[in-house]
Design a protein that fits this description.
- The chain is of the alpha/beta class.
- The protein is 46% helix and 16% strand.
- It has a single domain, classed as Alpha-Beta Barrel (TIM Barrel).
- The chain has an eight-stranded parallel beta barrel, surrounded by ten helices. A three-stranded mixed beta sheet has the order 7-6-9, with no helix packed on it.
- α5 packs parallel to α6.
- The protein is globular.
- The two termini are 34 Å apart.
- The protein binds 1,3-dihydroxyacetonephosphate.
- The site of 1,3-dihydroxyacetonephosphate (13P) has 15 residues, from β3, β11 and α11.
Length: 325
Amino acid sequence: MKKIHYSELGLVNTKEMFSRAMTGKYAVPAYNFNNMEQLQAIITGCIRSNSPVILQVSGSARNYIGAGFLPHLAAAARSMVEEARSAIPVALHLDHGNSFELAKSCIEAGFSSVMIDASHHSFEENAKLSREVVEYAHDNDVTVEAELGVLAGIEDEVVAEKSSYTRPEEVEKFLEMTGVDSLAISIGTSHGAHKFKLKPGEEPPPLKFDILEEIERRVPGFPIVLHGASSVMAKHIEQINRFGGKMENTAGIPEEQLRRAAALAVCKVNIDSDGRLAMTAAIRQIFAEKPSEFDPRKYLGPARDELTEMIIHKNTQVLGSAGRY
Ligand code: 13P
């Protein structure tokens, strides 16, 4: 495959996005996508709310889309921004990269940012692999996210049954050893649409803000990333169940907790499940109400609209990234 630098696609790395987010006390949204409709909804939502955006794909999402096809989608997303005469910056990020080879292959295919997730390995191995990716990425002006601590949950190829919180005392050494540009931490979020099963009247447990604050105290101004940040919006769960689905008793991270994290050192918030739920809810409704419908535009179109509205809601009401560009 021909090598492409992300600047040829009109993309940017995350450096300036994060420094502005840190000063402005908000978080940049990182939305996962797997297809054209999701990508269009994300970009449209971010253009309409004047929010910077990180488009992210996991390794398996990249395989699903096609490694050769993906740069064209990213370029198309940038064209949408230009056509709308919008100034929002767009980054293309590898989510949960699990090897040097995958990170390198993405960098050579136009990604402006990569995550190397070696958080399941020992501290030393995690630092070693992260450092290796940083050296290659920085030579190409690509930013790197690594992870310390383990999130529970299931997400594409990442599966962990139990979480372990990030240990703040390890952070400084890890940053020194690796030179990464941002760090994902574990403070009580988890991947997937089944984060908490609550009894009536029960609230999800609060995030470990003491850990986040201790990390901020040790490395002030360093960009922190929050994975597993979907809220599992009740209206979409209700809509899915009303129209034939079965997703009972599930809850995610409350919006006010995400707001609080975004005003602290969290500069990037990862959202995947909420986007999947929004589209599924809209599609289920169409199929239930119009069982004879078979034109994909008639169900993917409304699904795209629902996702666009959700993106605008997150940017304006939760992350504070709206109106920044
Ligand atoms: P959610 O499953 O909470 O959307 O988390 C997504 C994520 O962290 C992607 O890396």
